[in-house]
Write a structure and sequence with these properties.
There is one protein chain. The chain has 262 residues and is mainly alpha-helical. The protein is built from nine helices and four strands. It has a single domain, classed as Serine Threonine Protein Phosphatase 5, Tetratricopeptide repeat (Alpha Horseshoe). Helix content is 62%, strand content 4%. The strands form two sheets. A two-stranded antiparallel ribbon has the order 1-2. Strands 3-4 form a two-stranded antiparallel sheet. It comes from Chloropsis hardwickii. One of its GO terms (biological process) is protein transport.
Length: 262
């Protein structure tokens, strides 16, 4: 509910503003320790990324309430936004976007960690689980860049707005595609903020969609084996449908004005 989200936002904002906050039966304040504020900014940013790789990866709609709170906090407390991006880029290099290359002397285990895989006791997580986590983080990022906290001061620009999404898309299409990963990330990104990008960039956006269909999808196909076609097929269908309808659908779960009356 919108009212619940406001409560969460106010509590986080009060904590970061140095006000005493009630939690689990005790009162806490960042002023209780010289590094209190820095610690809270760090842990809070880390928690938002964890929501992306956990909650959002399983429940796509949850990207929007989490993103709108972070967007508002980022506006008032830019330090949280900076640390959030640092955590996000480390956990999901594709959010830069960047495909790390294996350097000489780097062990396979270390390289897999650089690619975003979780490695525990020399065991690498399964591909499906890895893709799900990356998908959740990209969806959260794509939601953040288009949302603003509705009760904030709208005078200034969004602290990390749609221009960053436009840049992400352009840089992504300049990279050589990876099997599995590229098709999934492009589809996630376009499903979540394609509509917002279409409204903002108009004809330039449609030129990009044509480029994806005519040039980039064949390049993804070239590196994709027959057993990895699922996500690529979904991306193909999505782009085709959008070009035919000359419209990108609104993402599922987007927060409507009526949500804030709940």
């Amino acid at each position: 509910a919108g009212s619940k989200l406001r409560e969460v936002f106010d509590k986080i904002n009060n904590l970061l503003s140095g006000k005493p906050v009630q939690t689990e039966g005790q009162t806490v304040s960042v002023t209780q320790h010289p590094q209190g504020l820095e610690f809270v900014c760090y842990k809070l940013a880390e928690k938002f990324v964890k929501h992306g790789e956990g909650e959002v990866s399983f429940h796509h709609d949850s990207a929007f309430p989490i993103a709108v709170v972070l967007s508002g906090i980022w506006e008032l407390h830019p330090r949280v936004g900076d640390i959030f991006l640092a955590h996000l880029h480390k956990k999901c290099p594709y959010s830069v976007p960047f495909y790390p290359a294996r350097k000489e002397g780097t062990s396979m285990e270390e390289y897999q960690r650089m690619l975003g895989y979780e490695v525990r006791d020399s065991k690498v997580e399964e591909q499906d689980h890895f893709l799900k986590r990356m998908s959740g983080m990209i969806r959260l990022y794509a939601a953040i860049i288009q949302l603003r906290w509705p009760y904030g001061n709208k005078q200034g620009a969004h602290p990390h707005g749609l221009s960053y999404g436009w840049r992400w898309l352009a840089q992504m299409l300049n990279l050589e595609p990876l099997a599995d990963v590229t098709a999934m990330l492009l589809l996630d990104f376009l499903e979540v903020c394609g509509n917002a990008l279409m409204k903002q960039y108009g004809i330039q956006f449609w030129k990009t969609m044509f480029f994806i269909q005519k040039s980039y999808i064949p390049r993804i196909e070239a590196v994709t084996s027959s057993g990895q076609m699922g996500c690529l097929s979904r991306l193909k269908n999505f782009v085709q449908k959008c070009l035919r309808a000359e419209e990108i659908p609104l993402p599922k779960g987007i927060l409507t004005p009526s949500f804030w009356r709940t």
